[in-house]
Amino acid sequence: MSAKTVLKVLPGVVVLVVLAVLPYISVTIPGILPGRVNGPGSLQLLAVCFIFAGFALSYDVIFGRTGLLSFGHALFISAGSYLLTISLSTWSLPLPLAIVVSLGLTTLLALVVGGIALRVGGIAFAMVTLAFAQAGSIIILRNPGDLTGGEEGLVLNRAAIPSILIGVQNASYRYWLALGFVVLAWVLVALLARSRAGHAMAAVRENEARAAVLGFTVYRVKLLAIVVGAFLGGLGGVVHAIVLGGSSPHLATAEFTLALLVMVVLGGAGRLWGAVVGGFVYHYADARLIELSGSSLVSSLPDLIGRLLGEPLFILGSLFVIIVYFAPQGITGLAVRALRKERA
Amino acid sequence: MNEFTLILVTGLGLGALYFLAASGLSLIYGLMGVLNFAHSAFMMAGSYAGWEVMRRLPDSMSVTLRLLLAILAALVVGALIGAVVEVTLIRPLYKHHIQQVLVTVGLSLAAVAVAQAVWSADPKPMESPEWMSTTTELGGALLPNDRLVFVAVALALFLGLLALLRYTRLGLIIRAGVENRTMVEALGINVRSTFTIVFAMGGAAAALAGILYSQYVGAVSPAQGGSLLIYAFIVVVIGGMGSLVGTAVAAVAVGLVQQMANYYAASGAGDLSVVLLLAIVLLLRPASMKGGHA
């Protein structure tokens, strides 16, 4: 390995090692994390942040790398989550089989939905995927045959899960599981981006007509992007269900799909770090901003402004608009530009 | 038979609401190629503006009169917000369609949060004139008056927009702009100010849909616009994007299919049958979806 590649890989490895040993570090960082770093509250928060980073990576395969504006990705994430909880409780499958079934059916769903939605292009594709995702959300809320639990969601069948992943004292194992998921998603997306299929996706994103002339079957490339993204999203849904101990109908809503879009654009579309940072920051902000609104600083502000700051979506939505205008490359794009300036 | 007439009319009423919600969306998409996610925010703004007006007017005034004033206020607010959003947020991102969509997404998220902060997430009951909740006997069936009102308003909007597009200079520019924007610009016509006007019209139509929908539901709530928007999207896609006649036909079809499925199949089957309808149309005639004529 040349010195240059070492230098390129090193930051990532350092970050990964630090994150992996976090559960052994017993200090408090007031204001940043709730309680001790290795306390169950902090570890759970970080675990969900990792899962969101993985969600964002899975969506970026479709949006950032292939340029497809899909509004239906929540369908696949919620499919992974619900299929796992349903196959564990209702169908009483053992965990490994349940995971295989969840991922298999999610991939199949992506083939069908993607196959139909890709018959239209551009903006119509966005609308059609949204319609399918909405159908999924409706099915989950209607609770057919008492399968999905309706608005209450579904609780994970704890008897089917290894005891090491259950309970407050085992928060660190769930943390490592989530970290493992995001690392796996990272590696898969990185490999994909370097493969022939990844180059084809980039070609389709840059110029569809030219990609077709070059001999790529555009339809197949797009479908592959949707299926790979859905597979990773479904895997994220499975991990999400295990870490949070169940499935929630919120994962299927149109709002959640829009949130995925916000994450990817916030971090920087089409970059590995972009999606990871975006997903992580999104969930962190969403979870911590509510706390901010309870602080004494905010309560001294006029009533309406205080209430506005108590709405994480207000801050994230406005931030999103600002990013689209002033930093189309997202947070990581800004960072890269700042680094280049420093070196120059 | 009476039952069937009833379902037909309630389905038409629902279709009328969908048309109201979709017409502005379709106009904006047709002319500018912008998928306007903020449409739900326009609908919400319209319904809250109407609610505030109804609440503040003296009780001595009849509910009908107050509702009429509320609708007027909603139209003005919707048009204003539409114009402001176009000038401040959409216009600077000229020709960047995906970024325009993203900005409207951010706006729709923030708008729901603003409504929750100002009016709280709880639905606010919306007053409705007594005659709206009674029925009219027509051909042996008792038909709810509010659905008839929705159909009448939607029909008026449809004919009005059609007349505008067919017989006015503005309509000519819009129709030409949908066909070939570059050519219209090359002829020296200011398409940009037309964009603002179309956005204002779309905003007003959305606000009208919002306040009538709140009459249908009996309340206003922050998330209301979003749930209506999804049906509006489906209607716009089925109708062939950008075509007003197609939008009207699709709205009627979607309203009828949904109501029939809810009645003859199972309650809740309606929403799914609408998505199924969309899938069938896409499989059979994908070419018709690629953009159309006003």
List the helices and strands and how they pair.
The complex is a heterodimer of chains A (344) and B (294).
Chain A: H1 3-21, H2 40-62, H3 73-89, H4 95-117, H5 122-142, E1 154-155, H6 171-194, H7 196-206, H8 208-213, H9 218-244, E2 246-247, H10 254-267, H11 272-294, H12 296-299, H13 303-309, H14 312-326, H15 330-343
Antiparallel strand pairs in A: 1-2
Chain B: H1 2-32, H2 39-56, H3 63-90, H4 97-119, E1 124-125, E2 135-138, E3 141-144, H5 145-167, H6 169-179, H7 181-186, H8 191-217, E4 219-220, H9 224-238, H10 244-265, H11 269-284
Transmembrane segments (chain A): 12-33, 45-62, 74-91, 97-118, 123-141, 173-193, 223-244, 256-282, 315-336
Subcellular location (chain A): Cell membrane
Organism (chain A): Janibacter cremeus
Provide an overview of this structure.
The complex is a heterodimer of chains A (344) and B (294). With 344 residues, chain A is mostly helical. In chain A, 72% of the residues lie in helices and 1% in strands. Chain A has one domain: Orthogonal Bundle (ABC transporter involved in vitamin B12 uptake, BtuC). Chain A has 15 helices and 2 strands. A two-stranded antiparallel ribbon of chain A has the order 1-2. The relative contact order of chain A is 0.15. The model of chain A has no long low-confidence stretch (mean pLDDT 87). Chain B has one domain. Helix content of chain B is 75%, strand content 4%. Chain B contains 11 helices and 4 strands; from the N terminus they run H-H-H-H-E-E-E-H-H-H-H-E-H-H-H. Chain B has a two-stranded antiparallel sheet. Chain B has a two-stranded antiparallel sheet with strand order 2-3. In chain B, helix 9 runs parallel beside helix 11. Residues 290-294 of chain B have low confidence and may be disordered. Chain A: Keywords: Cell membrane, Membrane, Transmembrane, Transmembrane helix. Chain A: It holds the Pfam family BPD_transp_2. Chain A: It is a multi-pass membrane protein. Chain A: GO terms for molecular function: branched-chain amino acid transmembrane transporter activity.
